[in-house]
Amino acid sequence: MSSAPQRALPSLDRLLQALGPSPLPRPVIVRRVREQVAAWRASGAVPSFDTMVASLRADLARLARGRLQPVINGTGILAHTNLGRSPLSASATRALLDAAHGYSNLEFDLESGQRGQRGAYLESCLAQLCEAEAATVVNNCAAALVLILHHFARETRREVVISRGELIQIGGGFRVPEILESAGAVLREVGTTNRTHVEDYHRAIGPRTALILRVHPSNFVMEGFVESPSTTALAGVARDHGIPLVEDLGSGALIDLAKVEETLPREPQAQEALRAGAALVCFSGDKLLGGPQAGIIAGQSVHVGALKRDPLFRALRGDKLVFAALQATVESYLHAAARRDVGFPADLPVLDMMRADLRELRRRAGRIAEALLGLPVEVDPGDGEARIGGGVCPRARLVSPTLRLKPREGTIDDLAARLRLGQPPVIAVVAEDRCQLHLRTILPDQDAALIAALRAAFAGPSTEPGGSTGESETGEAVAGSKSAPGSVPLPPP
Ligand SMILES: *Cc1c(COP(=O)(O)O)cnc(C)c1O
After folding, report:
1. Is the peptide bond before 424 cis (omega within 30 degrees of 0)?
2. CB neighbour burial string for 1-27, b if at least 16 within 10 angstroms, e if fewer
């Protein structure tokens, strides 16, 4: 029959058994193994059993790493969007767990025993903090903006007047002109990139104008020959024409950041924008506020009420877990407001990181460095620069005690990769010929896990994970051996 020296493919069961434990659900593993075996069969080049097992293990490890999991943030970027922005406070985390675990009075009035208003208490707390008539919560700040634009820009009034200097892009996929378009609004640009005057707005407003939108430039800064009207002046223009002024504050802040850390610049505060006459403001829950992903809308109750009655609101409304975490976060601010001495919450990680004591950060760096003695790496503690991230205060830099690692063998990039692929994954910065870890964004209770991850990373390039039955029968190179990304053992189940 067949004359080619084709090796027979092993049974699925035999392969599954050889693969050993994995955190992945069995059907996911079975599917990957089937696909891979089919590919080997189709290619006609059937590798040895050991090669197959090694290659499958590497593939499954790659897949398992894509699962959402905690990481250690050594980047020095506090509200790192790719790493989930602001960590929650202990009380917010507890509130979230409690709400998740059982039932809650999410939309139930305990007084009357009837259906209640979703998030009414949270909304009243937010309104109080923002010094607004009313407030509400949607999924994120982008959703808040879409809801506002969709609601106000309709029928014959579709134009949204905005300065050319504010047609910005924030992070991946948030471009102000595109958001406007998707919400059915028509962009009416005024002024120039660097200068926009009150008269520019006046001239642009007509019977088709729905609102004036002001967007905080967030992640970029213009300098030099720059001018834009104050919120007060813009609110005056809006009032003259009988249209609302809406301000997208981006991160927004409920407190003066300079009180937390004196070197930080002022971020626009929701209260100030509303006091200056904005009809509505929106801002993110998970940037400077230090809460969960959410978009907060605050301002005049006629407008907030109308937004809540808009059919789109239903599609964008917040989830109970978010409400629970946000409620605890917002209560932290309200508790703090009662304590005149400080005025800002003392339990929000993102604020803690901003005002962290440098001596304490250096002490921690020293202790970690000590724990690494004897490993094949040079560790020199130094100072780097931390940033806020999340498009907030792009120029602000905080002195950031840093562990600077230089491995005796292998490259810096290789070390950074091994740290990323470890358990827990550690995200470092490669700069100045060092693999750097910023203590400011490493939570104090993560030091032990960090030390363990660093030790594991220096335990040598991982050879094949346990369960390997020996050398490849054919002596061919085992896929994913040495320090290739695929060679990291599966995390424990
Ligand atoms: C970050 C930002 C947004 C987007 O906020 P999300 O909560 O991530 O949707 C919108 N507008 C501005 C000005 C921002 O800085």
Report:
1. yes
2. eeeeeeeeeeeeeebeebbbebebeee
Query: 9-63: per-residue pLDDT in tens?
Result: 899 999 999 999 889 999 999 999 999 999 999 998 899 999 999 999 999 999 9
Identify residue 68 by its one-letter amino acid code. L
Minimum-distance ligand 1 atom for the alpha carbon of 218: 15
Model pLDDT for residues 405-459, shown as the tens digit of each residue: 999 999 999 999 999 999 999 999 999 999 999 999 999 999 999 999 999 999 8
The minimum-distance atom of ligand 1 relative to the CA of 284 is 7
Residue whose C-alpha is closest to residue 52's, from 7, 93, 86, 87: 7
- Asked whether 170 lines ligand 1 (CB < 6 A), one says yes
Nearest Cα to 92, choosing from 398, 356, 387, 330?
330
Please indicate whether residue 288, judged by its CB atom, sits closer than 6 Å to ligand 1: no
Q: What is the pLDDT of residues 83-127, one digit of tens each?
A: 999 999 999 999 999 999 999 999 999 999 999 999 999 999 999
| Whether the CB of 215 sits within 6 Å of ligand 1 | yes
